[in-house]
Amino acid sequence: MFKLKLSLAVALMICGVAQAAEQLIIDVHRDANCGCCKEWVKHLELNGFKVVDHVESNMSAIKQSLGVPQELASCHTAVIGGKFVEGHVPADEIKKLSGRSDLAGIAVPGMPAGSPGMEYGQNHQPYKVLGVTKAGAQEVVSQYPISR
Ligand SMILES: [Cu+2]
Questions:
Q1: Going by fewer Cβ within 10 Å, which terminus of the chain is more open, N or C?
Q2: What confidence tens digit (pLDDT) does each residue in 100-144 have?
Q3: What spacing in Å lies between the alpha carbon of 75 and ligand 1's midpoint?
């Protein structure tokens, strides 16, 4: 009886792990020659994401079809849970996204030095993670570096 309970507990644990992993599957759209895009993909994988890599020939068409505002554009565009993730967004911010059903997506516009995948060099600059609501409004979701 004890053995049965134990194996049930193990099965439930495995289910739980599988479910958690499934939630972190992210589609990344990028240009073939984008080096910092690959660095960002590494950052995601190091933080538990399973990346489905899509090499694209027309990134601006992808951004447009996903509703990324033009002024927030960066290099790569990802999709998770139906929401867009534009640019070098930190993995922790993507993990918080499932709790924001009001948002269409989040973005780190441009390519700020020091953001995930852009760590080379010494001139790290502060940057903001912006949220875009389904109504089209923009808000600051987070600022980096995080002040303590
Ligand atoms: Cu980039």
A1: C
A2: 999 999 999 999 999 999 998 888 999 999 999 999 999 999 999
A3: 5
How far is ligand 1, taken at its centre, from the CA of residue 119, in Å? 11
Dihedral-angle region of residue 110 (phi above 0 means left; psi in -120 to 50 means alpha; beta otherwise): left
Centre of ligand 1 to C-alpha 13, Å, is 37
> Contact, 55 vs 32, CB < 8 A?
yes
Which residues sit with Cβ closer than 5 angstroms to ligand 1, an ion? 36, 75, 111
| Cα dihedral 37/39/41/43 (nearest 10) | -140
Element (H, E) at 112: none
Instruction: Tell me how far the alpha carbon of residue 14 lies from the centroid of ligand 1, in angstroms.
Output: 36
pLDDT at 80: 97
- How remote is the CA of residue 30 from the centroid of ligand 1, in Å? 9
Domains and CATH numbers, the chain: 2-144 (3.40.30.10)
